[in-house]
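Give me the fold.
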Amino acid sequence: MRLTRSAGSTAVGPAETFTGTVFVDGIRTPDDQSTVGGAHVRFARATRTAWHPHPKGQTRDVTNGIGYAGRRAGDVPEIRPGNVVYVSYTG
């Protein structure tokens, strides 16, 4: 078993990844034992992600609020708490 304690710090999301105010709490950073990473991300009203790739895809677990999820070419469904969105990376 491996326990990683939270650093308890919140960072502002970088401008190259987000448009608007976003707060990021790191949960897990990929390492030599696992490629899985995770963060708790909170968006201020009218904030969005900037287009950027996730070469191995990305899973979003919606825990609060209402928003939209989409890709450059495709539908843009509304997402709500309890929804899980997986976006694959196809280049």
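Residues 1-48 form one domain.
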